[in-house]
Amino acid sequence: xxxxxxxxxxxxxxxxxxxxxxxxxxxxxxxxxxxxxxxxxxxxxxxxxxxxxxxxxxxxxxxxxxxxxxxxxxxxxxxxxxxxxxxxxxxxxxxxxxxxxxxxxxxxxxxxxxxxxxxxxxxxxxxxxxxxxxxxxxxxxxxxxxxxxxxxxxxxxxxxxxxxxxxxxxxxxxxxxxxxxxxxxxxxxxxxxxxxxxxxxxxxxxxxxxxxxxxxxxxxxxxxxxxxxxxxxxxxxxxxxxxxxxxxxxxxxxxxxxxxxxxxxxxxxxxxxxxxxxxxxxxxxxxxxxxxxxxxxxxxxxxxxxxxxxxxxxxxxxxxxxxxxx
Length: 326
Ligand code: HEC
Ligand code: HEC
Fold this sequence. Notes:
It is a single chain. The protein is about 40% helix and about 0% strand. The protein is an all-alpha fold. The chain has 2 domains: about 45-175, Orthogonal Bundle (Cytochrome Bc1 Complex, Chain D, domain 2), CATH 1.10.760; about 185-325, Cytochrome c-like domain (Cytochrome Bc1 Complex, Chain D, domain 2), CATH 1.10.760. Mean pLDDT is about 90; it is low at about 20-25.
């Protein structure tokens, strides 16, 4: 009798450790840093990073030399902005909330509607937009070709004058270096820190059936980059992906954003209409508004007040202090 109990005990232990290692293997694979892919002719070098960084912070891009990429993508806020719509040149208001650029090199497509295929091509958009830089890359190239420091840096980095090719490539290389992977959550996954009981509860809601957040915000960057509608409004001012495709199935479809550093990237959503994480969680808890393209995964969650609070606490473990302070 006693022997049988011991055998069952050992079997149970074996099963438990099997389950445990399966779980850790699954999680560590899902959350390990993906490989950064550079274009064949635009491999990373320190000279290219330095040139891209200098360009990113240089107001030479705007028609009146007033603003740079960093005026909207502010390093302190994980390269996003604190206002609903960042103003462009001559204080012209924007039409979408400035997204964070951390881990941007992992994105499979760009803009909130996901219509631009490469980070290099993306740079041309703010340059030309009337309410961003209102400029053009040929004129900008001419301007920086008059600056000896740029000419030297460009020759060293790309073996040519600073032109449209160099500008877009160097900005691409610099932006791919903006990597955030050291949040409290990451330290927890590495077994270095513990999460509080509330944070763990929030994590279970996030990844489990209760919240189902990870079906769109899963994986290393807390997004599957799914192009979808999360029921923010019944009627949107912004047609979303339909702007590019002209297909009504894409009406108000947006790219699922990363949730890393979400604590510092307020306001939220494509239109910056939500200010706090609490507001976002209440939105999902309600099941959202009935938009024609609302994703079937968005439905009432029936979370209690303390569950909502725990979910918010978990989302705050995604803040990478080192990245934000750097
Ligand atoms: C006036 C504010 C402003 C300036 C200046 C600006 N951006 Fe942006 N950026 C935005 C906004 C707003 C969006 C979202 C646009 C959209 O979805 O239509 C965006 C989108 C992006 C994206 C795509 C993000 C994603 O999640 O797909 C990248 C990359 C980017 N900007 C890089 C840059 C670079 C590089 C510069 C400088 C050459 C720059 N931006 C200048 C406001 C700005
Ligand atoms: C069906 C896919 C889907 C599910 C499920 C989902 N989201 Fe989202 N989420 C999105 C999309 C799409 C957006 C962007 C909407 C927009 O820009 O208007 C978004 C935006 C957000 C934002 C704002 C991010 C930013 O930078 O603006 C937060 C925070 C967020 N979701 C948290 C959650 C949480 C928490 C859950 C679970 C309760 C969840 N999401 C479930 C698709 C989803």
